[in-house]
Write a structure and sequence with these properties.
It is a single chain. The protein is elongated. The chain has two domains: about 35 residues; about 80 residues, OB fold (Dihydrolipoamide Acetyltransferase, E2P) (Beta Barrel), CATH 2.40.50.660. Strand 2 and strand 3 form a beta hairpin. The N and C termini lie far apart (about 70 Å). It contains two helices and five strands. A five-stranded antiparallel β-sheet has the order 3-2-1-4-5. Helices cover about 30% and strands about 40% of the residues. The protein is of the alpha+beta class.
Amino acid sequence: MEFLLYVTPVAIIIIAIIFIINKGKKFSRWSNSLHEEQKTVTATLIKKEEITTAHSNGLRRNPGSIPFSSTTGRLTFETSAGEKLTFAVKGFDYGGVKEGEKGELTYQGIYYLSFKKSAEL
């Protein structure tokens, strides 16, 4: 029993440290992206992945609750230099493009900003 009195706080501290390190890495990646310049490159959309997430209003046992889902996606582009870039996108940015389309991709760090198809240029 005494063993648990010593091990439990140590385990909680280790889990907290891992959590803080993980959040710190995400913050660092976000911060670095904000300091990068916006880039516009010629690219082709090579892969389009749909991500559907189901949601509820939190009242799972309520027969009147209406669940809903949201759709986001991941778009993978290949630049004219051969670099592959993948971005998480929402809404029209996902639905408004098709695999194989070429155009001008604008991004900043890890963030997608826009894709203007060749016909729109």
